[in-house]
Amino acid sequence: MNKELNTLNEELKSEYDGPILELKNVRQYFQSGWGKSKVVVKAVHNVSFQVKKGEVFGLVGESGCGKTTTGRSIIKLYNITDGTIYFKGVPISQGNRSFRIKIKELRAKIAELKKLEKEAIAELKGDLALQQNDNNAMNATDNKIQDVQTDTNMKIAELKKEIVANLEKIKESKTINKRKRELMDKMQMIFQDPIDSLDPRLTVKEIIAEGMYINGIKDHKYISDKVNEALELVGLLPDHASRYPHEFSGGQRQRIGIARALVVNPDLIIADEPISALDVSIQAQIINLLNDIRHNMGLSILFIAHNLSVVKFFCDRIGVMYYGRIVEIATPDELFAHPLHPYTKSLLSAVPLPDPDYEKNRKRIFYNPKLREFTEDKPMMTEIRKGHFVYASKAELARYEKELNGEKVEPDPTLIELE
Amino acid sequence: MDKNLDKKIVVNQEFDDTNLNNEQENPKKLQIKGNLFKRKTLQEKYPNPDTDIEIPEYLSLAPSEDTILRVENLHISFRTPNGIVRAVRGVNFDLKKGETLCIVGESGSGKSVTSRAIMGILAGNAIIDAGHIFYDGKDLVECKEKDFYALRGSKIGMIFQDPLSSLNPIMRVGKQLTEALRLKNGLDRETAKKRALELMKEVGIPQPEKRFKQYPFQFSGGMRQRIVIAIALAMEPEILICDEPTTALDVTIQAQILDLIKKLKKEKGLTIIFITHDLGVVANMADRIAVMYAGKIVEYGNASDVFYDPRHPYTWALLESMPSLATSKRLSAIPGTPPNMIYPPKGDAFAARNRYAMKIDFEQQPPFFKINDNHYAATWLLHPDAPKLENSLKNRYESQRKLHHIQEDNSHE
Asked: For B67-99, what is each residue's pLDDT tens digit?
C-alpha cells in the first residue's frame, strides 16, 4: 500500500499537463425497490467531458437534470455505475456496469452456442439412426459430431477468456475505487446551502481546520496560521475564527465554506450552486471572490449553476445538461451567439433580464423532446466547430451546419413558440 | 392609530383634571397618571420613536377612484431576544386596480413583512407601531382576526415562496383545493370538485382528474406552485400577493409560472403585488416598482422609469451587480452587508455601502424627490445642491440589446 502511495506521489509531483478532470462515459443510476417495484433512475446518463487546467467549466440545466449528481459523483460521494473518472490523469473511480453487462452477454452467447451444439448433435444422431447399416457413413457422422463439439468448445473457451478478462476489469475497478487520499485532497467542494453545510456546533476555526485534522496535521500553530490565512483570503477577519456559524450572514457563511475548501490547497473545486441561496447584492461579492481566488491560485473550477447570466460571466466553457446527458458544450460567447441544440435555445429564451422593454417583447420557446426521431439515426456527441460540441443525429447535424453558415433553415420541429 | 391616540390623550386629561382638583387634599395622587391597572399595549411597551414621517408626495392626499389598496406610513417592529427589530419603517404606496406592483429588495428589507401585514398574518412577536392599510373602506391595521377571515382568500389571495411547505403534505391536493370552496362558499362536495377541476385546468395541470387524488409530494416543483396558485384563486380574490413565487424554481419553470400569472391576471382582472429580489423577473412582470431597502421604499415609479432612469444609488448598485449576458468585466458588487435593523442607522440606511454617499447621508434621512409624476426617489443626490453624477447603466442596456439582436436574428434564421 505504501509503495502504491509513493509511486502515486511521484506521479503527482511530476508536472501533469493534461486535463485536470476527465469523465468518460460516466453513468450514475440509482435504484430503489426490488422485483416488480424496482425503479432505476438514470440520473447521469453517459456523460463525457474534460476540465482543463486553470479552467472554469460550467454545468447548467434545470433542476433534476443531473448536474449536482455529476458533481457529487466526481468527488466520490456516490460510487458511479459505469464509466471512468480521471483526476490529474489518474483514474479515481470506475463503474463496472458495462463489464457486468458484457459478462451477461457473453454468458448468454455461451448458452446459445451450447444450445446450437445440442441441436446439431441431436440432428446428426438422428442421421446416425438412419445410417445403421452403412459403417462409412456412420464414421463420417461421428467425425462430424466431434467436429461440432471441438468447434463449439473452442468458441466457448474464447468467450470464457473474455469473461475472465472482464472479471479482472471489475476487480481492477475495485482497486481504482479505493480512496486515494493524497490525490482526493486536491479536489474540494463548495456546497449550495451555506447554512446546512456548516456544522452549527463547531467554531469557524474547527470547521476550516477539519480537513487538516483529518490529514493528520497536529501542529497547532501551523493550523491556526493556515486558518487565518484562509480567512483573510476570503475577506474575513482572523477574529472570526472563534465564532460559530450562526453569528454570520449568508454571504459570510458562504465565505467560510470557500475558506474550508481552500485551506488544503486544492487544484480543483467543485462549486455546486454556490450563489443560488444568496441575496442579489451578495451574489456579486462571492462571484468576484471566486474569480480572484481562481486567478491568484490557478484553480480549476467545476461550476454548477442554473443562472445562465452568471455562468456566462464566470465560465470559460459551458456544458448544457438535459435529463442526464450533456447536450451541448461550447465557450460562453459561442453558446450564446449560436445555440444549436433546441434545449439550449429554449433555456436561453427563458432567462429573465432586467430590461422591461426586452422582457415585454420576449418570445419564449419550449422544447418538446418527444417530437425528435431517433429510431434510425442515433444521436452522437459531435464537434461541429472547434470547441463546440452538440448532441445530435446526422440529419440534425446537417441542419446545424447550415444554421452556422448563416443559411436559411426551416424552424426546428421540436421547438414550440409560446406567446 | 391616530384616533386611538387622541382618545387616550383625552382620557389622560380628564384624569389629570380630577387630580388637579384633589391636589391640595392628597398631593401623593399627583404622581399617578393614567389607569395603572390597564394592560399596556405592545405599542406602549415598546415605543417606536420615529414614526412621524411625512407622507411623500406620490401618495396624493385624496386617493383616486381606481386605488383599491393604500398603505400609509406603516411601521412594523419585531420583539426578539436581541432587541427590537425595526423591520418596516414608514412604507407608503398605492395599489391601483389592475396593475402589478413589484416590491424589490434583498432579504430583511421588509418586503415580505409589508405583504404579511396586509394579509394580517404577521408573526406573534410583531408590533404595528403606526400606520394604516386602507382597503375597501376599512383600516386593516385595526381589523380583528375575525374580520380578516372575510378578507383572506376571498378578497386578497396570497402565493408563498416555497410551494412544498405551503401545501399540507398529508392531505390530498383535491381536498386542499376544495377546502376553501366548501367552507366559504358552502358548496357541496360534487360542485366543489367540479370547480376544483376547472381551476386545475385553468392553471395548466394536465390530467386533473388523476392529479386531484394525488398528494403534494407526487407533484414537481412547478406543478406544486400551480396548485398553490389554484388554491389562491379558488375564491376569486381581487388582489393577489405573490411572495417570491419563483425563487425556488429554475429558469424554464419560472418562465412558465410567470406566464401563467400574467395570463390569469389578464383573464380575471387581478391586481397583483409581486415581491421578489430578481430584477429579471421584475422587468417581466412590473407595471410599477417599489425598491425597498432597510424597511423603507427608496425608489418608486413606473417600470421603465426605474429600469432606464434609476436615481437611487441602491437601485444602480442592484442593477450593476447583476451580471447581464453582456458583462465581461469585473462585477461591481455592493460592498458590505445590509444594516442591522435592531439599531437602524440614523441617516440614509444605504449610506454605509454607498459609493456616492455625502456627509448629509449619514446625518439626515432623505425625503422623496420628484423626478416626474410617476417616479420618485429618496436620495440626497437629487437635491439641487448635490453634485451631478453620470451612471454607466446606459451603456449596459445598449450592449445587452446588441447581444440579443444577434441572438434573435439567429433564431429567426
From this structure: 889 898 899 999 888 888 899 988 989 888 999
Which residue has cell 383572506?
B152
What's residue A368's pLDDT?
A: 81
Question: What number of residues does chain B have?
Answer: 413
What confidence tens digit (pLDDT) does each residue in B10-36 have? 444 444 444 445 445 555 555 556 666
**Which chain A residue's Cα is nearest to B410?**
A338
Range of the domain at A406: 338-418
Residue that finishes a domain, picked among A145, A177, A209 = A177
Dump the DSSP string for A240-265: GGGS-GGGS-HHHHHHHHHHHHHTT-
pLDDT at position A258 = 92
Question: How many domains does the structure of chain A reveal?
Answer: 2
The distance of B84 to chain A (nearest Cα, Å) reads 18
B251 closest CB neighbour out of A252, A308, A358: A308
B413 contacts A409 by C-beta, under 8 angstroms: yes
Q: Mean pLDDT in chain B?
A: 82
Q: Which residues contact A63 (CB under 8 A, 6 or more apart)?
A: A306, B221, B249, B250, B253
The predicted-structure confidence for A329-385, as pLDDT tens digits, reads as follows 999 988 988 888 888 888 888 888 778 887 777 777 888 877 777 777 788 888 888
Q: Whose CA is closest to A418, among B267, B408, B227, B259?
A: B259
Rounded to two decimals, the pTM is: 0.81
User: What is the C-alpha separation between B321 and B298, in angstroms, rounded?
Assistant: 18
Give the C-alpha distances (Å, rounded to integers) separating B216 from A41, A402, B161.
20, 46, 15
Above 90 in pLDDT, residue A419? no
Asked if A337's CB is within 8 angstroms of B281's CB, the reply is: no
Q: At which of A112, A146, A177 does a domain end?
A: A177
Strands A300-305 and A56-60: parallel
Residue A36 lies inside a defined structural domain of this protein: no
In this structure, what C-alpha cell is assigned to residue B327?
458583462
Task: Determine whether the interchain pair A359/B330 forms a contact, defined as Cβ–Cβ distance below 8 Å.
Answer: no
pLDDT attached to residue A307: 80
pLDDT at A37: 87
Kindly report the nearest CA distance between residue A246 and chain B, in angstroms.
Answer: 14
C-alpha distances in angstroms, B311 versus A60, A204, B288?
A: 35, 40, 15
Instruction: Quote the minimal CA–CA distance from A61 to chain B in Å.
Output: 9
Could you report the per-residue pLDDT of A125-142, keeping only the tens digit for each? Answer: 888 888 777 788 888 888
Cα–Cα dist A156/B52, whole Å: 94
Distance from C-alpha of B100 to C-alpha of B93, rounded to nearest angstrom: 13
User: Which residues does A87 contact at the CB level (< 8 Å), separation at least 6?
Assistant: A20, A21, A22, A74, A183, A184, A186, A187, A268
